[in-house]
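Backbone-to-sequence.
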């Protein structure tokens, strides 16, 4: 499935009337500008204060208000010198030059071309019942620190960056592009001294944003965030009292922090250490250990 399908299903499960507990209520467009971990409250940009038993800070990588509050200072994620293009291709417009991809028996698997002389990798996989092809192109980006760096990109930008890739892969980019072409700076969050304070806890990218290698990239590090959520769910069953929460979230940190930081470091080390000749692997399957 496409990442948005996965996210939408999680939202449906969280807000559905059926199931244990009260359905989640979503407040969209409500920017959090402050947090009081001791009282378990947040303040919105409109001045409203919301109190709860627990504050979970899953508020993205770069500007996590909850993380800054828990740490007592602002923390900037570290750019790693790698960027990636992301786009969706219309798989219904295949021609004979691309049929090797759509008709291959492993079409439901991830197919990868790697060129690690300067760390370049093209990752493709079908989504939406093979109607679309998700394309991700990783590359060493020496322009990340420039003031005119832009997150916007064109088809030609992608072709220029991967001009010497195997022609079979380049033909995929002849397909109609049915999404914006995004360019992301890959960043990591350094190991934090703590994930908890009072009745506030960090989860996902705000705690341990990871570069998308070592199996951490298909849903932008979602695997680690889902593990976080699973552990919190076990530690905070229905009936947990407010007084029990600080000890429970401290246990969450004990169970999760070492593993998440290990995966973070291994993923970055893998990206920076793997250099060599360009490789074409039309039958490569991605198992979260190596791209080749």
């Amino acid at each position: 499935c496409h990442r948005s399908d996965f996210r939408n299903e999680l939202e449906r499960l969280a807000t559905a009337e059926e199931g244990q507990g009260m359905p989640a209520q979503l407040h969209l467009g409500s920017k959090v500008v402050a947090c009081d971990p001791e009282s378990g409250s947040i303040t919105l940009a409109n001045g409203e204060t919301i109190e709860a038993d627990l504050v979970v800070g899953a508020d993205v990588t770069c500007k996590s208000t909850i993380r800054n509050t828990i740490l007592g200072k602002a923390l900037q994620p570290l750019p790693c010198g790698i960027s990636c293009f992301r786009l969706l291709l219309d798989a219904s417009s295949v021609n004979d030059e691309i049929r090797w991809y759509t008709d291959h028996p492993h079409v439901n698997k991830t197919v990868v071309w790697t060129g690690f002389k300067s760390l370049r990798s093209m990752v493709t996989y079908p989504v939406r019942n093979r109607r679309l092809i998700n394309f991700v192109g990783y590359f060493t980006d020496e322009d990340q620190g420039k003031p005119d760096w832009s997150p916007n990109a064109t088809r030609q930008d992608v072709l220029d960056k991967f001009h010497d890739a195997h022609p079979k892969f380049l033909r995929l980019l002849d397909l109609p592009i049915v999404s914006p072409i995004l360019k992301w700076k890959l960043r990591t969050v350094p190991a934090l001294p703590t994930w908890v304070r009072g009745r506030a806890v960090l989860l996902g990218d705000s705690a341990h944003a990871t570069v998308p290698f070592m199996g951490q990239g298909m849903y932008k590090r979602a695997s680690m965030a889902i593990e976080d959520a699973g552990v919190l769910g076990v530690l905070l069953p229905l009936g947990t009292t407010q007084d029990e929460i600080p000890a429970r979230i401290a246990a969450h940190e004990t169970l999760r922090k070492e593993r998440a930081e290990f995966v973070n470091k291994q993923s970055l080390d893998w990206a920076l250490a793997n250099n060599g000749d360009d490789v074409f692997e039309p039958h490569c399957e991605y198992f979260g250990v190596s791209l080749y």
